[in-house]
Amino acid sequence: MPQQQTASDPTIALIPALKSSYADMVEKLNVGWHERALQIFLAIVLAHWAEHLVQAYQIWGLGWPIPESRGVLGYWFPWMVSSELLHYGYALIMLIGLWILRTGFTSSAYTWWMVSFWIQFWHHIEHGLLQGQAIVGENLANSPVPVSILQFVIPRVELHLIYNTAVFIPMIIAMYLHMFPPPGEEQHIKCSCVVQPKSSSNSS
To answer: 65-80: per-residue pLDDT in tens?
Structure first.
């Protein structure tokens, strides 16, 4: 019979160390590195937004057929638009970013940030459903292409514009309240994100 693993097993001993390293990293991302982490996260979100807006312009501004309206990167790399895995991957990265960076927010900013998180959670479920159909090779309702639940009511392009808007607006509200906290909330913020009023600058 195989021997049972004991507490001295290095694989078991490694688990607390990994948990501690993860906790330390999350702490840094929400305190000392929070401002820079939010800047990088926002840049990723805006780049994704640009792709959706360019695609929308190609469809409704230029009158291109939807299959040919692939945004910026999709114009040069068509597989990027047709890959459900890529779309799901971004939705998952967005969800993870919202979760990991949440503890840097406090009070009303935290509330708005979590609104964005829960909307993105559902958005990621929808993308997971699309990815699942692509893997299995069978689509809901015998559709010729993978479809999500709300896609039965709203076309895909419009639906994901709505999703991204619904996630983006509370996220930006949260960032604004985090940078310019209402009276009484600033004292709870541990990072460097707060924008100091000019009146608080050192006087000569």
So the answer is: 887 777 777 777 676 6
